[in-house]
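Morning!

As promised:
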Amino acid sequence: MTFATPRQVFSLFEADVRTRNRNAAERRFRLYGVIAITISMLALALLLFTVLDNGLGAFRQTFIEIKVPLDPARLDPSGTRDVEAMKKVTTIGYGKVIQAGLVATLAEAGIATDDSSVRDVFNLISKEAPAQLRNRVLANPDLIGTTIDFRAFASGRVDGYFKGRVSMASAELDSNISPAQLAIADEMKAKGLMGLHFNWDFILGPDASELRPEAAGLGVAIIGSAYMMLIVLVLSLPLGVAASIYLEEFAPTNRWTDLIEVNIANLAAVPSIVFGILGLAIFINFAGLPQSAPIVGGLVLTLMTLPTIIISTRASLKSVPPSIRDAALGVGASKMQTIFHHVLPLAMPGILTGTIIGLAQALGETAPLLLIGMVAFVRDFPASPPEGFFDPASALPVQVYNFTQRADPAFVERASGAIIVLLVFLLVMNAVAIILRRRFERRW
Amino acid sequence: MTELPLPVKAAKVNARNVQVYYGQNHAIKDVNIDIPSESVTAFIGPSGCGKSTFLRCLNRMNDTIVGCRVEGRIEIDGEDIYDRRVDPVQLRAKVGMVFQKPNPFPKSIYDNVAYGPKIHGLTRTKAELDEVVEQSLHKAALWNEVKDRLAAPGTGLSGGQQQRLCIARAIATSPEVLLMDEPCSALDPIATAQVEELISELRNQYTVIIVTHSMQQAARVSQRTAMFHMGIVVEEGPTDKMFTNPDDRRTQDYITGRFG
């Protein structure tokens, strides 16, 4: 028998060449790791900084605060306070009321306006304002005849001026705003008639047209995304877990199950836009479900999420030690009892993590939703479930995409703001995943 | 304790021409053995000789292994356990098993023991179940150590306590046969002694079959011993005779430590 020749070591205090080389290799490897982590942390920091820097402004909006006397002659010519009759007055009529209120408020504050500049001042207010006032009055006709405090959005350009996006110099070249208007805006701000406030409408309100970025909100998109997540969760969790349990624990290993297994692995890698085409062909063209509806989006995202859930569930079922199965079978538990009493609870943290990661993926998915019409401009809130599942809605990532498509630079800020909201939702979901895992793990 | 001649007891388990295949591998060849009731039978033999495989045939735990095939006839109380009418789940309630590595459920001590009676519907009331749990833990000589912390997780016990908990769990379903697959291999000598003492006690009520690598253990606890080698039973008989005057050369070599 041959033995390895012993190493010629004279002192343990002195590392030989081989050892030094090995240690150097280890140090190099650690350095590579540190470099890799530093690069990714920097990239993450840069991403977060850009998004926050661009997007935080979207949560604060410039508002104009004026007193508006609601003139009964204009708003309720019939004098009956009948809502149906009052609906005949269009936003143009309300615009006139606001203009009158604005002039009065400015006069009271001592800001000089002449006939030529009244139009300019009125244009400082968002085109959304008359509609807002109209809705408020129609909801409460008793307001007519009183003078109300009305907080209206300032136009996108004015908002941009206070956020540093628009300057006097750029206003010279801008057909939508003039330096004179900005000067009045400055004056109004100094008098406290105009200022930046937190804008709940950005989170809760519906989208607005390209001409009024200041009024655009995420409400419909958030509800659409929430509905879709609900559908995905309700469909994909039971389907995915049941499929995994069957495949992992009950199915015989033969050519068919091999085929299914390969296909599930492949499905997880299929580009998401393909699922969109599939949804368009099957759910909309064949099954006749409505376009832009959360139900179709939810179904498509369910198909996308299922492979993720199945793969992670199978992995966590597989990782349950066989000794637990033996123990349960050994005391005479049936296969199903073994799985449901012992294996599944142990696999639960992994299943939940996989499910929430799948949901988070689905929440951020855009491409398939574009194909099933969720890219449409939707201003009406969907009804409450289950009817609401069939109403048109938007989705958060699609809303981001929509905002970036619009010309007005004010939408850059809103797109980043929408990304922040999306990231907050993702963070919350991941936090829930971590908490659930901790809770389930602590029991053992 | 084994000096006195044992009263002849009726065979509880009869195996005839048992063959086990793992795919192409013929793991157990032509095993014929009769195991008397209310006694301890030890299976000894070198690693990979098939003693654990044969043990797992007795409660059909091999059914869960893909590609495993059992042929021949194994009877418990005269009933062929591989008959198509036999539900392995019911069989395992009658033939309990303790594994090599202590494997308590990650639940409370109480739930560990109560699980079997619960799923088999052996008790009607909570009080009855409490009684069964206490009795089982008493029989497993664990009651005094855990009576104050029945709600604590079973996995938090020491190795020896865990194994005794597993024994309590196995006997809680009142099996008639108790299979033990190297129950002491993961335990220190003190815990081993406790488990061995327990096995000797259990003999009065159960038919115990134990697989062991320890000759001393086989000699201490068993009344009959079967020597496995390369998938066959080379010799089987009263433990006294096996360890003092074996017929087969291989048995002698093995118990004197010349191979294995």
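Chain B touches chain A through 30 residues (CB under 8 Å).

Hope this helps with the figure draft.
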